[in-house]
Design goal:
With 316 residues, the chain is α/β, with parallel strands linked by helices. 46% of the residues lie in helices and 11% in strands. Strands 1-2-3-4-5-6-7-8 form an 8-stranded parallel beta barrel, surrounded by 6 helices.
Length: 316
């Protein structure tokens, strides 16, 4: 594996796409809706060098899909992307045996990368997680692994563990957020490891982490306004950091305010993005239970949010 080339292909927007479901009993996969969304993003400019796409992440409802459905979604995204943008397959699980199967499946469908988090439910040790990642690396040595620090649902990945993960050649990237201790822990990780890993900012600290060497950002906004997100990325690459921070306050803050409000009503993760897409006429926002249907309470709020931020596809 060419580590430098693999890291470079993750440059830009890291777009966790939602998994579309048909709004009918059982909420079956809407594969055509997924294809349509991937092509829409690519047509808007989300291509290799400026973006990558995660299929079946947390905001893609991996937790309510079967193993076979997760593979089907990843295959659908890879086929729709057709080599125009790198595809990451979500690999969150609680089982090393299933992680190995997911890694093998990712290779089988043609994904370049797999996103891996510490197993949730039990508080695994650092040694547990190191062996867990090594098992995936051994099963699929040419698959780039992206370590996702989901400290809010599982064990936090420490700086010392990151150093040990650096010894696994196929660990290409860190998708990173950390508990806010007030000691600039996130910035320290970026500063220390941006030469070894592609750092994907998952903490909305896009400006400071970019200055320190991060070269990718988790941008949920790209799902429903890719032109805005690409403009943000290009502005950061040009060093226009004040403009970026102001735009984040104008556009990102309202999205996350809505997100926080919905989280108090129901579980899940992908609903704010799917609401925005439904407002734009791009499929149902329904997620599978136990996430409740949020449309009655929040679809109009999503529309008003898009109007407030000036989305060109929505008028008052």
């Amino acid at each position: 594996m060419d580590q430098a080339a693999s890291r470079a292909r993750l440059t830009g927007l890291y777009i966790t796409i939602p998994t579309m479901f048909h709004d009918e009993p059982g909420l079956p996969l809407d594969l055509e809706g997924i294809r349509r969304h991937v092509n829409w993003l690519i047509d808007a400019g989300c291509r290799t060098g400026s973006a990558s796409i995660l299929a079946g992440g947390a905001a893609g409802d991996f937790m309510t899909m079967t193993f076979d459905e997760r593979v089907t979604v990843a295959r659908t995204v890879v086929e729709a992307a057709a080599g125009r943008v790198p595809v990451v397959m979500g690999g969150q699980t609680t089982s090393t045996l299933e992680l190995v199967r997911l890694a093998e499946a990712a290779v089988g469908v043609g994904a370049e990368y797999m996103q891996v988090s510490p197993p949730f439910y039990f508080a695994n040790t650092e040694g547990d997680f190191l062996e867990y990642v090594q098992a995936a690396a051994d099963a699929a040595p040419d698959l780039g692994l992206i370590i996702y620090n989901t400290y809010w649902t599982s064990a936090n990945v420490s700086s010392s563990l990151v150093q040990r993960l650096a010894d696994i050649p196929s660990v290409i990237a860190l998708k990173w957020a950390v508990p806010d201790s007030g000691a600039m822990d996130l910035e320290q990780i970026v500063s220390d490891y941006s030469d070894r890993f592609m750092i994907i900012d998952n903490a909305l600290r896009w400006v400071s982490t970019h200055i320190l060497g991060a070269r990718s950002i988790e941008a949920f906004e790209a799902n429903y306004w890719p032109e805005w997100a690409l403009g943000i990325w290009n502005a950061m690459e040009a060093g226009r950091y004040v403009d970026v921070q102001r735009e984040m306050v104008r556009v990102s803050v309202p999205l996350h305010q809505l997100w926080n409000e919905i989280e108090r009503y129901t579980s899940g993760n992908g609903y704010p993005v799917k609401l925005c897409l439904e407002v734009l006429g791009m499929g149902s926002s329904r997620d599978r239970p136990p996430t409740r249907d949020v449309r009655g309470l929040y679809l109009e709020k999503a529309r008003q949010m898009l109007i407030k931020v000036g989305h060109p596809g929505v008028t008052a």
